[in-house]
């Protein structure tokens, strides 16, 4: 498998609106790609499609060797999507949320406290999500993605709502992911933060990849 | 089984903290019992005779709310998406959600049972039959309800469609459960176990249909 | 007819076939009315009850004429809902737009005929059963629940605009509705264990030739009306599907056109933020 992501002429509809209008994209395994573009360009839909959540109207897409159209469950089980919604249960504590998602993903063995340490949330493990700030929820959400040990990280605006320390946590996790040999796709407006980490930059506009550049080719080997 | 139980326990834990069923749906079910008493303007003899039917109508109405709550738990923070992303098989997700609904419905029914004893002067003449019939009917309602609930997830207008999808389908359950209770409460001379058998069949049919059809929603949209 | 053919690009649900079918249906309906109101006799059957008892008049009188409509309409209802179930299976099996369209059309026409079945049955019941409505009659109850289930089905279809999602989810709802029919029938049967409907009139020795003919003719007429409505309804669905497809092409082109406009902004954006970053 030489490409972690292989998308050809993908059309994805959001209620009849072609959010992706024939997008093509190939990403090699182990790369870090920054997806940039204006609001409404299709960045979020691209990540959702790669996560197996948005059906293809046309075209084909392979993620980690699985066909998005015919094997969505395998795609979903192998990726980690950090979306703008935190996907946490408000009435449960951070630890309960983490252990629930670990069980559903079949990773009962992970060290939950270590995962929380990594995002500096260990002291809040037994607090209900509803009592936490936006930034704290965000960190907890990042921990949920991390415990899945995804082979493809799909990060949608990972820095949004985070303070300086929180942003450093995100950058550290991206570095961890690279070190573990995973592939990372980051959609972000915070180009100055992501660019130093990125090996490639994909500029998305009007539902297609407008430009694809290689930057910083050595970064993945670091 | 781990996933099924984790999912059900998660929903029950959320209920234990938020108490939506305990403070909203159970009282609502009791309100229905009182409303029937007032609307029928009945002496206790009539209410006692009608108790099996009124019990199950109240249960069905309350079940619509319980199922809506079960779905709301997953839509408030988009955790429904996360369930789809979890990679767990659809039938396990269905079983977990339906199990939690079933347990909550049984709790509602227990309170309603007390309600008909106090308000309608019903007496449990065959408790074994009553409990068996209630469990079978509850599995049928929770299964069909959890499936229709997830079919109704999505854009705003869908939320109001749930009762219109669920209640017509639930008519055989209503008939069978009412008959079984008629025997168990001693208000009708018939064999309640035959009807309980039908309830068991319905529970199997809806649980199977739900487990199979959940994938249509979870895996492919 | 020729005008329709000479304007092939005008979207229409009519064609030569539907015109013939429509005219034939309406003529057939007129003929059916003549047969059922004029040519056939009122039902005045007499049953011999043995030598020592008086014969019993059991006929329905003029009310029987309504059955020439009621029975075929009821039959078409069940055919329509069966077609919906077949379409639903095909959708889940093959993801077919054609079958989804068929299932939707069958459900809509089926609900119409189901309503007619209930109405005609109720009107017939007034003189015969001495009531508009009879709780506990197996077929009346089953048909009523079927009516409600498919009203829910049609309402459900309207809540979704994504045609692929709609096809699959509706198929599930339609199928669960269908598997409920025998269950409803059986449970109501047990519920009251009585039916007011006649048990298979056609096999009864006392049905006259003309009555039998009118009954069968009625079935043919209502099958033709059903086919006529189905073709129109199917074509409406098909045209809607075409509009969506054509609209999609246009939308994709329009969407891609945003690229050049948006990109200049994006590039400026990225430059300025990159500059800020390096500062």
> How many E-type strands of chain C?
2
Secondary structure: helix percent of chain C = over 70%
Largest β-sheet summary of chain A: 6 strands, mixed
Low-confidence blocks of residues of chain C:
1-8, 201-205, 270-279
- Total number of β-strand segments of chain A? 10
Global Rg of chain A: 17 Å
Strand order of the largest sheet of chain C: 1-2
What is the number of helical segments of chain A per DSSP (H or I, 4+ residues)? 7
Largest beta sheet: strand ordering of chain A: 6-7-8-3-9-10
Output the structural class of chain A: alpha/beta
- What does the average pLDDT of chain C come to? 79
Order of helices and strands of chain A: EEEHEEHEHHHEHEHEE
Q: In what range is the share of β-strand residues of chain C?
A: under 5%
What does it look like?
The complex is a heterotrimer of chains A (222), B (221) and C (279). By secondary structure, chain A is an alpha/beta fold. Chain A is 30% helix and 29% strand. Chain A is built from seven helices and ten strands. Chain A has a six-stranded mixed sheet, with helices on both faces. In chain A, strands 2-1-4-5 form a four-stranded antiparallel sheet, with helices on one face. In chain A, strand 1 and strand 2 (17-28) form a beta hairpin. In chain A, helix 3 (94-104) packs parallel to helix 5, helix 4 crosses helix 5 and helix 5 packs parallel to helix 6. Chain B has one domain (2-218). The radius of gyration of chain B is 17 Å and the shape is globular. Chain B is an all-alpha fold. By secondary structure, chain C is mostly helical. Chain C has one domain. Chain C has a two-stranded antiparallel sheet. The radius of gyration of chain C is 27 Å and the shape is elongated. The model of chain C is unreliable at 1-8, 201-205 and 270-279 (pLDDT under 50). The interface between B and C is medium-sized, with 30 and 28 residues.
């Amino acid at each position: 498998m030489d490409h972690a992501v292989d998308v050809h002429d993908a059309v994805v509809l959001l209620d009849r609106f072609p959010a992706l209008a024939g997008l093509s994209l190939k990403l090699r395994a182990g790369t870090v790609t920054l997806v940039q573009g204006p609001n409404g360009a299709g960045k979020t839909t691209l990540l959702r499609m790669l996560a197996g959540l948005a059906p293809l109207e046309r075209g084909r897409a392979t993620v980690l060797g699985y066909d998005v159209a015919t094997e969505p469950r395998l795609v979903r089980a192998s990726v980690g999507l950090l979306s703008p919604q935190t996907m946490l249960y408000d009435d449960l504590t951070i630890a309960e949320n983490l252990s629930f998602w670990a069980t559903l993903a079949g990773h009962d063995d992970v060290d939950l406290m270590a995962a929380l340490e990594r995002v500096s949330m260990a002291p809040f493990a037994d607090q209900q999500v509803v009592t936490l700030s936006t930034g704290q929820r965000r960190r907890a959400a990042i921990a949920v993605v991390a415990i899945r040990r995804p082979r493809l990280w799909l990060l949608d605006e990972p820095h949004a709502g985070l303070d300086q320390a929180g942003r450093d946590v995100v950058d550290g996790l991206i570095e961890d992911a690279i070190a573990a040999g995973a592939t990372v796709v980051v959609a972000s407006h915070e180009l100055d933060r992501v660019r130093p980490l990125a090996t490639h930059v994909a500029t998305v506009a009007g539902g297609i990849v407008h430009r694809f550049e290689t930057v910083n080719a050595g970064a993945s080997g670091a | 089984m781990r996933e099924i139980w984790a999912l059900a326990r998660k929903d029950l834990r959320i209920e234990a903290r938020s108490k939506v069923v305990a403070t909203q749906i159970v009282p609502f079910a009791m309100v229905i019992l009182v409303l029937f008493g007032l609307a029928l303007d009945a002496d206790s003899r009539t209410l006692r005779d009608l108790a099996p039917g009124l019990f199950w109508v109240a249960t069905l109405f309350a079940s619509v709310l319980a199922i809506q709550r079960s779905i709301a738990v997953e839509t408030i923070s988009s955790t429904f998406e996360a369930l789809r992303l979890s990679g767990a098989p659809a039938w396990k997700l269905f079983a977990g959600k339906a199990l939690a609904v079933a347990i909550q419905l049984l709790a509602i029914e227990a309170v309603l049972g007390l309600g008909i004893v106090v308000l309608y002067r019903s007496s449990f003449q065959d408790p074994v039959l009553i409990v068996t019939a209630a469990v079978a009917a509850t599995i049928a309602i929770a299964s069909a309800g959890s499936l229709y609930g997830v079919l109704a997830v999505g854009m705003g207008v869908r939320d109001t469609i749930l009762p219109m999808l669920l209640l017509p389908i639930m008519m055989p359950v209503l008939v069978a459960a009412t008959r079984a209770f008629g025997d168990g409460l001693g208000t009708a001379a018939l064999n309640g176990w035959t009807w309980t058998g039908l309830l068991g069949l319905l529970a199997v049919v809806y649980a199977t249909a739900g487990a199979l059809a959940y994938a249509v929603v979870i895996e492919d949209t | 007819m020729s005008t329709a053919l000479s304007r092939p690009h005008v979207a229409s649900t009519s064609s030569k076939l539907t015109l013939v079918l429509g005219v034939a249906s309406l003529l057939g309906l007129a003929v059916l009315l003549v047969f059922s109101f004029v040519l056939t006799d009122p039902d005045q059957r007499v049953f011999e009850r043995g030598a020592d008892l008086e014969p019993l008049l059991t006929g329905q009188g003029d009310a029987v004429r309504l059955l020439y409509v009621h029975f075929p309409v009821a039959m078409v209802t069940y055919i329509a809902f069966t077609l919906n179930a077949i379409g639903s299976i095909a959708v889940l099996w093959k993801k077919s737009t054609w079958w989804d369209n068929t299932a939707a059309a069958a459900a809509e026409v089926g609900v119409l005929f189901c309503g007619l079945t209930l109405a005609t049955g109720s009107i017939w019941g007034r003189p015969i059963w001495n009531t508009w409505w009879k709780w506990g009659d197996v077929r009346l109850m089953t048909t009523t629940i079927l009516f409600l289930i498919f009203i829910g089905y049609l309402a459900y279809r309207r809540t979704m605009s994504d045609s692929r999602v709609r096809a699959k989810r509706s198929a599930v709802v339609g199928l669960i509705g269908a598997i409920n029919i025998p269950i409803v029938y059986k449970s109501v049967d047990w519920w009251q264990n009585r039916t007011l409907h006649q048990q298979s009139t056609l096999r009864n020795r006392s049905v006259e030739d003309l009555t039998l003919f009118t009954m069968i003719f009625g079935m043919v007429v209502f099958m033709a009306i059903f086919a006529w409505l189905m073709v129109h309804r199917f074509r409406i669905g098909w045209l809607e599907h075409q509009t969506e497809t054509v609209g999609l092409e246009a939308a994709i082109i329009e969407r891609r056109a945003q690229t050049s406009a948006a990109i200049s902004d994006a590039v400026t954006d990225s430059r300025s933020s990159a500059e800020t970053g390096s500062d």
